[in-house]
Amino acid sequence: xKIKAIIHEAEEGGYWAEVPGLPGCITEGDxxxxxxxxxxxxxEGWLEVANEVxxxxxxxxxxVEIAV
Length: 68
Prior knowledge:
TA_system_antitoxin, elongated, alpha+beta, 1 helix
């Protein structure tokens, strides 16, 4: 799975990143290597929580992914 993130230089040094497709999924790192490790962890954590919430909800709604 590929997910796009936007990486910003932090004013105080280092970097921070946000994932537009996953609201509230942000992280930071002192250097690019640390940022990438933290970003992967943040995305995995976000998806894990989203799956738990979706599994616990009793609904007939379905989420589908469509390639265009």
